Amino acid sequence: MKLTEVLVKPILTEKANGQQEKLRRYAFRVNKKANKLEIKKAIEEFYGVTVTDVNTAVAPGKNKTRYTKAGFIQGAKPSYKKAFVTVAEGEAIDLYANI
Fold first, then answer.
1. Chain centroid to CA 3: how far?
2. Cβ–Cβ under 8 Å, residues 49 and 43
3. Does residue 57 contact residue 34 with C-beta atoms inside 8 Å?
4. What is d(CA 39, CA 33) in angstroms, rounded to the nearest whole number?
5. Domain coordinates of the chain in residue numbers?
6. Region 3-87: CATH code
7. Alpha carbon separation from 46 to 11, 24, 25, 55 (Å, rounded)
8. What's residue 98's pLDDT?
9. What is d(CA 75, CA 45) in angstroms, rounded to the nearest whole number?
10. How far apart are CA 77 and CA 80, in angstroms?
């Protein structure tokens, strides 16, 4: 897998921002087929930091229903994979530089 296909986007939530400040842990949405070694290599190449730890989690897809004039409409949200990356002491990733 190409390194440009591994990272989808960073996760910017209050919980993720709290972990960035306290634990130097950053959250990213990644390709479901990517493994921890590919994720580590992609983060180190794109952001120029040293990665000490990578944890992954697959968020399951959820069923969604809504009621309309035509009746119930059922569908499903897709599942996705998250990676929690811990960087070395004294290093940081600036996720807000491109905004």
1. 15
2. yes
3. no
4. 10
5. 3-87
6. 3.30.70.330
7. 16, 17, 16, 18
8. 65
9. 38
10. 9
Retrieve residue 72's tokens.
């119930």
**Taking residues 2-16, what's their average pLDDT?**
94
Half-sphere exposure for 38 (CA within 13 Å, toward CB): 14
pTM: 0.87
| C-alpha distance from residue 35 to each of 10, 62, 80, 87, 92 (Å) | 17, 23, 13, 17, 22
Tens digits of per-residue pLDDT, 48-96? 999 999 999 999 999 999 999 999 999 999 999 999 999 999 999 988 8
Task: Collapse the DSSP code of 31 into the 3-class scheme (helix H, G, I; strand E, B; otherwise coil) and give the result.
Answer: coil
Amino acid at 35: N
| 35, two tokens | 């493994």
Q: What is the pLDDT of residue 96?
A: 82
